[in-house]
Amino acid sequence: MSDLILECNEYAEFMKHMPEVLNNGHAYLIGVDYNPRSNTFVVNSFEEEFDHGWIQTVDGKYPEYLHCRILDGCQALHQMLEQREVDNEEALSIDDFIHENGNAMYKPSRYDRD
Question: How far apart are CA 101 and CA 96, in angstroms?
Answer without folding.
Answer: 8
